[in-house]
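The instructor's notes for this session suggest beginning with a concrete chain rather than abstract definitions. Hand out the sequence below and ask the class to guess, before any prediction is shown, which regions might be ordered.
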Amino acid sequence: MDEYNRILIVDDERSLREFLEIFLRKEGYEVTIADGGQTATKLVEEGTEFDLVLTDLMMPHVDGLAVLEAVKDRFPDTQVLMMTAFATADTAIEAMKKGAFDYIQKPFKVDEILVVIEKALRQRRLLEENRQLRAEVHRRYSFHNIIGRSDRMRSVFDLVQRVADTRTSILVTGESGTGKELIAKAIHHNSRRKDAPLITVNCGAIPENLMESEFFGHVKGAFTGAHANKTGMFAAADTGSIFLDEIGELPMHLQVKLLRVLQERKIRPVGATSEVSIDVRVIAATNLDLEEAIREGRFREDLYYRLNVIRIEIPALRHRRDDVPLIARAFLRRFAEDMEKSIEDFKPEAMERLMAYSYP
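After discussion, reveal the predicted structure:
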């Protein structure tokens, strides 16, 4: 039995309440009983939270649908099972539309209701885990996880905040290790696309002969070894964002195809005869000087201007030394926790050495 085991039983029939209470307590659940809808709604409105509410539908004064509405209004993740001896299709549909997990007809077998209870509690657990995951993602990729109070970093945060919810392509530039991927994640997770995928692609790590298939997918039989249809990374990012890291490493023939995707917002899988519309926000990053790459003929100028609609330049640490103590102490706290050590701060001479380092 896990922690999600708090059950409220609501029924105006005393014998059924007592039977379910005894049975479910033996199964290890934490059980509260209510003798009707009025008692149940009062418990919920006072802030008592349950993982599952097992309620009769037909009760005097306050019926099961009213209990369902009160529970879902106060605690949306709480699962509600409706019980009734007068089941009709209309009442079942109405209960399900209002958020009931399932509908059980009386009389029922105890092993059957136990299976439904376990499924409902599993759903409750998944909803809570998903909520916690979303909160953790937001915490990690909001600005709180990107450390910096210097004027240059404040300017970066301000720009990210202003452009996060636009549809425009963004180019993030800066030296290796300056946090370009963190900025890309902050852009995505502070936008209206945050609940859709963010697909990260390292353009320098994919073999050139596989790049087009990885980017746009392929159809079965498109080439030797294409035994089934494959979804590409752009299609996987549909309605979300794609982060093209090391965009300067993209070969010329892929640059042409990427330019067309940005212009037309359509992709064509390798071997396909038709295009597929996509809605993807492109965030690209590079530590190269793309303007120099254009002069040398290694990067298309038209693609550069398509990507460089909004540019966010991340300063190197040596250009924002005011942030060194903040970052150093953040790492100190993290490693002290990991190693279960009690280390509160750096000695003054240690901090002086950190401040004096050149950070090449």
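Then share the key points. DSSP finds 14 helices and twelve strands in the chain. The first helix runs from residue 14 to 26.
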